[in-house]
Target: Aspartate carbamoyltransferase
Amino acid sequence: MSKHLTHTADLSKEEILQIFSYAKNFLDFKKRDDLNGKLIINIFFENSTRTRSSFEIAAKRLGADVVNLDVARSSTSKGETLFDTAANLDAMGPDAIIVRHNRAGVPKILSKYVKCSIINAGDGAHQHPTQGLLDLFTLMQKWGSLEGKKIAIIGDIRNSRVANSDIELFTRFGAKVLLVGPPQFLPQTHFPTTNSLKEAIDFADAVISLRTQTERHKNPTFSSLQDYAQNFKVTKKLIGNKDIFVMHPGPVHRNIDLDDEIMDDERCLVLEQVKNGVAVRMAILKHLLGDSK
Model:
């Protein structure tokens, strides 16, 4: 039976800690042969530069062969169903298919149609498990443990698959989470919420700012992103001298999500997240595809 990663809940706490143990070793970025002879297919139905290239680099650093499918030119654009596409790809004998799709639940459904591992690289506003894992890893590298830590997630939470994955993982590892944004960006939730960025920064040991998912809004919610930024942009002035980490899954809307000064601040972990993302994705591939060569 192939192992899949379609949701953060697919992994036990013990499995996550094992993945992080691998990831720490992979931070040296040396080329390895753990996945020699393995074939990995990237199939992205939504645009992505960072996640796709991060997976590709991760796979190649472990010695795997990688095929990137150009969906715009694939048979799905000619009317072939998603499931036929998956079945055809599976018939070619890959060890894993990494899939991103704008519809929630697609990776989970595909996992029932294939023999290989399915890895969810983001599905609609549902889940982005590898981003959640790299965010958790980044904070654990800084703190050792999330037990009792306070994390504020800021922005378009209702439409954010990253927020869903982060919330599940952070709370499972003992952190308290505060959701921050304008009322129309906040989901119905049992977690504490606030519309005040200052309150969130006073509360938090770390803040995660999210990109505003304008493409997921049926109706405009702000007259401009600048209007949103007036109340929810994380600035150097706001965080002052506080001992706090600032994160963002990218791509960052500079001076909308985070200001230029924050991006250059040593408390900003955005580039560390990118670096850790390669190591964590290497570790996930090793965990799912086994240690056999």
User: Anything to note?
Assistant: The longest strand covers residues 117-123. The mean pLDDT is 91. The two ends are 17 Å apart (CA to CA).
